Amino acid sequence: MAFEGLTEKLSAAFKKLRGKGRLTEADVKEAMKEIRMALLEADVNFKVVKQFVSSVTQRAIGADVLESLTPAQMIVKIVNEELTALMGTDSAKLELSSKPPTVVMLAGLNGAGKTTNAAKLAGFFKRQQGKRPLLVACDTFRPAAITQLEVVGAQVDVPVFQMGQGDPVAIARAGIEHAKRHGNDIVFIDTAGRLHVDEELMDQLKQMKAAISPTEILLIVDAMIGQDAVNAAKAFDEALDITGVMLTKLDGDARGGAALSIRAVTGKPIKFVGVGEKLDQVEAFHPDRMASRILGMGDMLSLIEKAEQSFDAKKAAELEQKLRRNKFTLADFYDQLVQLKGMGSLSDIAGMLPGMNGKALEGASLDESAFARTEAIILSMTPAEREDPSLLNNSRKRRIAAGSGTQVVDINRLLKQFGLMQQMTRQLSGKQMKRMGKLGKFGKMPGLPF
């Protein structure tokens, strides 16, 4: 995940300040020197680093330490506030037109991932806000771009409007008219990638902007290209006056400097971030939450939102009642595995927990083969067997093994793990279950195939 190197270096700088009764000016300047190097190594724009270090130093030297904070904690608080301010302080939402459809024009360099991220955004607004999005294929330069948009559009269940290899400006206009006729309230215009020095293609974007008057112009920026991302954002902003940025590939080995520089250099906010390859791995950007994660303080709000999206509230309520009555079944066990799998990799989840190092769990996820085995075994049982595993005698186990392509020993292992879970739930009193509430489902349960 991006920022891991920066998080480690900042944590090391803060650690040296702990235990000091009062910070001297020399202490602060030494810490700022390390923070400055950490930011530069993370590929943050050097002018931004200079201004940031200056602001933190001015606030930290001679600052009155709150009674509830140690001097080191006070420095962390100041750095946290300045990082948040650097990235925009408040979350910038996509502006929605008062007269539908809202038109969002996507632009960016070659290979930035506009087509895939157009589908991600369309799916996001359909899932999160109940919108009826339309994707419009205006990339007529790249071979198979239209086909790609149709494929990813189908995967997020969003229609695609296309007119083949025609005039992109005319296609954009026709796509918007199509949206009006068919009740689509938000339109994402997928344009061709281009170099920001390509005047002809940049002029085409200007013509498209003039022709369709988009509500928003989002620049899709690849976080992996570091400082070049900031240069691209500046060039596109000067040509088009973009309204915001979507930063992609933050799950990769990116140093993250683009996220800390783009707002300061262009004055335009980051509105969305791509955090994985899957089409549902897109998030609204929250500067305060990102600052908290950079400083190793976690991001519980995003974790809770992620859980709410993955876990079915009705099923969770039913499960709680079953646990109270000691009626946890193999079918419930399977449902929990499916929902937990939907939350993503363990390293992503760990990065949202205070004090946890996502790098330590890098690449960790549910064991796909173990999950498939568990799924096949449970689905090969009859409903009665899932409700009451005591019915599973040797002949039934052999039948299930044959139906699931596994062995009886695999079934016995699963039943043993399930028995441990049942024993654990019986030990929880009703009072403990109530206190656990929603957080109970985050606990690591024995036998989960990690």
List keywords for this structure.
alpha/beta; Rossmann fold; Four Helix Bundle (Hemerythrin (Met), subunit A); 20 helices; disordered C terminus; about 450 residues; 434 Repressor (Amino-terminal Domain); eight-stranded mixed sheet
Note the main sheet: 8 strands, mixed
According to CATH, what is the topology of the largest domain?
Rossmann fold
Output mean pLDDT: 79
Number of domains: 3
Radius of gyration, Cα only, in angstroms?
Answer: 26 Å
CATH superfamily of the largest domain: P-loop containing nucleotide triphosphate hydrolases
The total strand number stands at 8
| Measured distance between first and last alpha carbons | 20 Å
Give the percentage of residues in beta strands. Answer: 5-15%
The number of helical segments is 20
Helix content: 40-55%
**In the CATH hierarchy, what is the class of the largest domain?**
Alpha Beta
**Shape field:** flat
Strand order of the largest sheet: 3-2-4-1-5-6-7-8
Give the name of the CATH architecture of the largest domain: 3-Layer(aba) Sandwich
Q: How would you spell out the order of helices and strands?
A: HHHHEHEHEHEHEHEHEEHHHHHHHHHH
- Unreliable runs, pLDDT <50, ≥5 residues? 360-366, 429-450
Task: List the SSEs and their pairings.
Blueprint: H1 4-15, H2 25-41, H3 46-60, H4 71-86, E1 102-108, H5 114-129, E2 133-138, H6 145-155, E3 160-161, H7 168-182, E4 186-191, H8 199-212, E5 216-222, H9 227-240, E6 244-248, H10 257-266, E7 270-274, E8 282-284, H11 287-294, H12 300-310, H13 313-324, H14 330-341, H15 346-351, H16 368-379, H17 383-387, H18 394-404, H19 408-426, H20 430-436
Parallel strand pairs: 1-4, 1-5, 2-3, 2-4, 5-6, 6-7
Antiparallel strand pairs: 7-8
